[in-house]
């Protein structure tokens, strides 16, 4: 039985944190879910989308996080329960609306779920969403394990309705993507009716218009909600303590760090000396509860990711309590007991506790660790980050790189986040020279494109994925077109939000729930901006190069090159070869050719390998995706492609 | 003599701004390519020694060695270089007619060689708009389509390699002195590898300087329709202008402005009359429609005689005054370039840190500068 549809309370499932969150939301009777894909958050909306039909829900991948939050808020204003998900930096995108939503308040329970990525395992930043809760004065809760992921999500909707405030539930990679046993609760039987009531008094948050004015009154009201939240949090069952009554060392932790802390204390055998206060409600802080625990010990260690959020806020609270509890010694990220950036793990926590308690501990015998290190350096083959075999991006950046070199004016490419970010590396021929937030490559390009007046004659390109185009590139391109910025936007259209797992986006004719929807025409949008638009298949190396050179030399404001080719991993392309590709051993002169192995030294598709014995190139048939691009890389025509009959 | 690879070619020539874009290094490998008059290296190649460096007329050229190879004579003995005779010439009545740069001597000789099978392909330089383009021509009737001078430096020699790859073995080349120098090094390389000489005849053009295509284009594109240019000429002094003939009339641009587009490489070029060619052709100052024709080698001599006998070429004795003037101008160019290369540390640099741009024996240098 699918865990999402299961109506047997008490049943146990092995669930990922994100699955548990989705189930919790269903148990709370969520009606609308929206989000923008981003690791590690994507599975929540994906799961809900799958059963949206059965559950009478509406689920969408919105164009970006801000719009996702607005879509979810609309449902709440109409009295429904709603949620909205995103990765850490998505909160930055949505934060403008969230600031105002905090003041206006909500009606139906609304939960915002940012999933942070400590260690930037799938990100290009280590953003901390928790600070937004404090900054924007919103209640914040953090599940500490998989069961709590379900239960706290379910509760978050009640809390939101009790406070009439949006609630932030924060997860992290190791919670969202790790799995544990979870016992499910009942699914409600709902009659979902939406109606937006607005004819009450201007200042009535439940029946009047949903606005932030008068700000003075509403803001005060928001702060009162935070006070009420604090009172509720004092007695929350999600704040737990385990350990002796008077611990030698008190660990204060939250989220996945709870698991690390428990494991560390267990490993060190210090359960009777070290206590763990695990906070499930992390803003506002339950100060009475904290006072009680801070009174039991002289030394406190904060274990949290990424920034010292609890550490700084609890220290500030402790300063207010100093008269009653006395001086305390605090350790954590601020004094360097734990690293200030990156992901934590049980070993790091063990090290910190061992140091503070004077315990000797070796995770592995020293000799073993040394040998392991040597072996891993000497025997494991070096593996670069690279694009998949047959990836359109390799071909696109090959085209872009060569065109910029031929042009010879030191042109460059501004990028952002997507698989194509890897073009900063040799796999993308080191073509990408800036990489920041979604769409920022095009915004930067728009700026660079104005610097011709200061003597900058370098061609300026930006790259964007198709999903990113809708997310944040459109305003940048409008800016560039309107101000006649001399740039070329290269749209790497691989027909899906490939990096995060082929979620739908507005350019596709199907939505998150799998229903047909009108596709928004990227090309038409660009033409409507007045931009000169060219479209090419990046696998057609020669044709693309020609069009590119003309576009670069043509000059004249914002131009667009759409490089259209489906992602090699997409369901449509996977396992289907366009060409059967092989190396003609007669023609490949190998080492004795003057080519210096351009195929396997520079182009480096993982399926194109150097046969050390024959000293010639070879195609790995299993890896080869049949794109045929390498055939145009060998000047000797030693790489032969034959169209596969269909 | 030590040869180097493309990494050094990039350092010594491309990065120093000394590339003339002749195309000698193009079509040899996947890394070096030419685009709109510029030579680009797409990726670094790790070969320590390559044909690119060996062929390049701007990388470590040993002029004494080249002169020895082509003429069996030391370098820099006379202003116009080793020669057997000098003539005034123009295309003969049997040569295909066309608009030529001056007398049409070059086109006539090329057409004659193709007709008689002296060469199996000619490497010429045509154009699209203002952009010079290398052409492999095998039909004598097509020679005229490449007539007239394109003053932008051209990657003509890229077609030489393509012609070799295509199997042509008796190739005729028309080129500027730097291109003829590169072709001499290509022939030296073939000999050192034990390969047959691919080149059956070289016709050199006189040259004081060429122009950077991209700069020339940006000077002209605002003033005229580049696509409609018929011919470009630089009338003799004291005019000091470039004349651009097009569908819409004649545009005159002061040479001062045009000279801003001269590539740095030309300032170090010692050769005005294509000394390493079989025959060299330029204008005959003071006589529009006539060429100065210098015959340097015995096969060049045979060509000129046969072409004249066959009605393809008309020759007359060259006025002594014109030869003298040419000698003086060529000597001046060689002297200026030699002095500049020494001053800028590009001639036989001491200490071995910098690879030379030009190599010349000390006594040759002294002879030139005296
Ligand atoms: C860049 C340049 C500078 C020159 N400078 C001088 C000078 O200072 N003094 C002087 O007397 N003569 C100079 N010439 C030579 C002159 O312009 C004529 O080319 C020469 O007189 C031959 O005339 P023709 O009528 O026989 O040529 P045509 O019969 O018209 O044939 C011209 C030939 O030149 C070749 N050609 C054209 N452009 C180029 C190019 N860019 N690179 C290589 N080959 C080319 C073509 O293949 C064609 O075969 C120069 C030529 C060039 C290309
Ligand atoms: S001068 Fe000629 S051979 Fe030398 S680098 Fe330039 S194009 Fe290549
Ligand atoms: S001056 Fe010398 S280097 Fe310049 S184009 Fe003429 S022959 Fe070549």
> Low-confidence parts of chain A lasting 5 or more residues at pLDDT below 50?
none
> Helical segment tally of chain B?
11
Mean pLDDT of chain A: 94
Structural class label of chain A: alpha/beta
CATH class of the largest domain in chain A: Alpha Beta
- This entry's quaternary arrangement is heterodimer
Instruction: Name the helicity range of chain A.
Output: 25-40%
Overall outline of chain B: globular
Distance between the ends of chain A: 39 Å
Q: What is the beta-strand fraction of chain B?
A: 15-25%
Supply Rg of chain A: 28 Å
User: Compute the gyration radius of chain B: what is it?
Assistant: 19 Å
The main pleated sheet of chain B reads as:
8 strands, mixed
Number of strands of chain B: 15
Query: Based on helices, strands and strand pairing, what is the structural class of chain B?
Result: alpha/beta
Bound molecules: flavin-adenine dinucleotide, iron/sulfur cluster
Structurally, how many domains make up the residues of chain B? 2
Strand content of chain A: 15-25%
What is the average per-residue confidence, as pLDDT of chain B, rounded to a whole number?
94
Core attributes:
heterodimer, A: 646 residues, alpha/beta, Rossmann fold, 4 domains, six-stranded parallel beta sheet, globular, B: 370 residues, Nuclear Transport Factor 2, Chain: A, 2 domains, eight-stranded mixed beta sheet, three-stranded antiparallel beta sheet, 11 helices, 15 strands, 21% strand, binds flavin-adenine dinucleotide, binds iron/sulfur cluster
Word description of this protein:
In chain A, helix 9 (257-268) crosses helix 12 (346-357), helix 14 crosses helix 18 and helix 15 (440-448) packs parallel to helix 16 (466-482). In chain A, the strands form six sheets. In chain A, strands 2, 3, 4, 5, 6, 7, 8 and 13 form an eight-stranded mixed sheet that branches. In chain A, helix 9 links the parallel strand 11 (249-253) and strand 12. Chain A is an alpha/beta fold. Chain A folds into four domains: 12-234, Thiamin diphosphate (ThDP)-binding fold, Pyr/PP domains (Rossmann fold, 3-Layer(aba) Sandwich), CATH 3.40.50.970; 240-357, Rossmann fold (3-Layer(aba) Sandwich), CATH 3.40.50.920; 392-564, 3-Layer(aba) Sandwich (Rossmann fold); 579-643, Alpha-Beta Plaits (2-Layer Sandwich). Chain B has 370 residues and is an alpha/beta fold. Chain B has two domains: 6-212 and 262-369, no CATH class; 213-259, Nuclear Transport Factor 2, Chain: A (Roll). Chain B has helices at 6-14, 51-55, 63-71, 105-116, 158-165, 177-192, 213-220, 255-258, 298-309, 320-343, 362-369, and strands at 32-35, 38-41, 61-62, 85-91, 121-128, 131-137, 171-175, 199-205, 229-233, 241-246, 249-254, 279-283, 291-295, 313-317, 358-359. An eight-stranded mixed sheet of chain B has the order 6-5-7-8-12-13-4-14, with helices on both faces. Chain B has a three-stranded antiparallel sheet with strand order 9-10-11. In chain B, strands 1-2 form a two-stranded antiparallel ribbon. The radius of gyration of chain B is 19 Å and the shape is globular. The mean pLDDT of chain B is 94. One iron/sulfur cluster binds at residues 9, 13-14, 19-25, 39, 55-58, 182 of chain B.
